[in-house]
Amino acid sequence: MKKSVICILAAAASLCLPSCKKFLNVQPIDKLTGNNFYQSKDDVVANIYDMSRTFFGKVNETHFIGATGEYRSGEVLSEPQSDNGPARAFVEVLGRNDLLGLINGNPPWNFYNFYRITDWTGYYQVIQSANILISKLEAGVPGVNETEKKQFEGEAAFIRGLAYFYMVRLYGDVPYYTDAYHSTALPRENMVSVLNKSIADLKTYKDGLPWTYADPALKGVRASRGSVIALIMNMNMWNAGFDKPNATKYYQETADLGQELIKSNAYRLLPITEWATVIKGRSDESLFEFYRSINYGDQNTNLAPIGDMFLHYPYKRPEYTHRISFAYFRAEYMQKLYPGTADKRATIWFNSDIYADNGKFMMLKFAQNSFATGEEDANPDNTFMIFRYAGEMLLCAEALAELGQDDQAIALVNKVRDRAEASRYTGGGGQDLKDFIFLERSRELMGEGHHYFDLVRTRRIMNSEWSYNVLTLDKFNRGAWTWPINSSALANNPFMSLNMYWVNGGN
């Protein structure tokens, strides 16, 4: 049994030898990926949920969203007077881009298990499951009609594409495959090529998915056509930053897809006063999320939600360990985002200490839906948002601005600002507009894991106007924006290489 499990994990990482093929004939107990499953539509649906759970496991195993998407540009500082203050200093270690110091040795934050971010096995388990499911659907599953087949294939292709997108942003080049039961060793493939292949793959399945679901419990939870469009848009915008000769093509496709998303009328911006509904999940604004609810007995790692770092009593309990927040965004940065003009986000998403520069600061954006009735140490009961309508409207606006279609870009930006009851953008086009859209994404998506990746793909990470942790061009080109890859990736794969920037000491 132990030998079979080892083979499963190795194959999932696309690193195994052909001798591991025998695991494919073993019926797994807790993962629906074997030959003996897919005997009914229920099996297929169960497998789709299982892939989502496996993917969420990577988000849930550490303080993932903050560590990967928010802190590495230095805007966040720790509050030394908070409970277990030295352990919260990891935000500043990330802010210096000292990833080796984060995961090596014996620092006081070891209980966060940040080293797990370097291990891509979980993503490849999702990819393998998706590949097998699509293969089984193509062969035919009893009780699944043609419409359902296309939908299920689209859902599998989406979660597969999302896994590749996450890995590209974390590691750069990665091995790519879509065939079921893959067993041969592969080298890492150029990340632009990986995303272009993923885009082409997603396009073949996009229109087989519904725009949304009649069952409100499935909105944002199951992949839809809007989910796929959002993913392709994000892939295109990432490639635009790294494949400059073809940037116009990526911008045009992002703009076209954004307009298709808007014209569908399948999604909407909820009033800012209904933000609790958005962050709880399954709303008309959600394009894709990992929905979690205490009512379902979901077991979230208490350290995983980003709100854990920026909330204190009465939103976090017990009071004696949560009198102040563990961390805060620099006052200078907050003043840049909210310079005093009208914007309801400044008062609904933050407490009155928005410029405090200490642990009095709270990001109330993630304080909604608190369920604590006693002194239990638990976070508010919110979803883990991946893509939502406002973010894709702003991504479309960014693409339009890059194409010189300033009026259309401004119109989209102002729709997002109107929802926030913020003053409208009345400036000009060109670089001023592009910079404003970047700041608007920073405001609108704060804490949702996009900021650092926006800095990287736009190369603002190399400019002190935009980042407290500036990367030089040399460091950027050598991959200082990536994460280290766990050395286990080298096992049984003579074609594999690690990220040399980190192998060479991170300098």
From TrEMBL:
It comes from the Bacteria. The keyword Signal applies. InterPro entries: SusD-like_N (IPR033985), SusD_RagB_dom (IPR012944), TPR-like_helical_dom_sf (IPR011990). It holds the Pfam family SusD-like_3. Gene3D superfamilies: 1.25.40.390. One of its GO terms (cellular component) is cell outer membrane. Residues 1-21 form the signal peptide. Residues 356-502 form the RagB/SusD domain. CDD domains: SusD (cd08977). Keywords: Cell outer membrane, Membrane, Signal. Residues 109-226 form the SusD-like N-terminal domain. It is found in: Cell outer membrane. Belongs to the SusD family. This is Starch-binding associating with outer membrane. It comes from Mucilaginibacter gossypiicola. The lineage of its organism: Bacteria, Pseudomonadati, Bacteroidota, Sphingobacteriia, Sphingobacteriales.
